[in-house]
């Protein structure tokens, strides 16, 4: 497997984990827990963006 492919796979995993954390934050009723989950999701998304950039470009479709 190429380095670019591994980076892309890692970025995809980070995106999926961030999405799950965002969904969990939306479901929780505790404001502090919601904030923690949203912050973790944001950090994961940033890592994902960095992984995508290192792999030769983002695999995310443009908005």
Verbal overview:
The structure is a single chain. With 63 residues, the protein is mostly helical. It is built from 2 helices and no strands. It has helices at residues 3-27, 31-54. Helix 1 runs antiparallel to helix 2 (31-54).
Keywords:
2 helices, 78% helix, 63 residues, mainly alpha
Quick overview:
The chain has about 60 residues and is mainly alpha-helical.
Biggest sheet: strands, sense, closure?
none
Number of strands: 0
| Rough outline | elongated
> Kindly, what is the distance between the CA atoms of the first and last residues, rounded to a whole number of angstroms?
29 Å
Number of helices: 2
Query: Averaging pLDDT over every residue, what do you get?
Result: 80
Given helix and strand content, the structural type is mainly alpha
Strand content: under 5%
Segments where pLDDT lies below 50 for 5+ residues? Answer: none
Q: Helix and strand string, N-terminal first?
A: HH
Instruction: State the share of residues found in helices, binned by percent.
Output: over 70%
Question: What topology does this entry show?
Answer:
Layout: H1 3-27, H2 31-54
Helix pairs in contact: 1-2
């Amino acid at each position: 497997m190429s380095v670019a492919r591994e980076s892309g796979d890692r970025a995809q995993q980070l995106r999926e984990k961030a999405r799950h954390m965002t969904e969990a934050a939306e479901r929780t009723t505790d404001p502090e827990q919601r904030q923690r989950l949203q912050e973790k999701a944001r950090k994961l998304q940033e890592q994902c963006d960095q992984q995508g950039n290192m792999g030769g470009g983002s695999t995310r479709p443009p908005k």
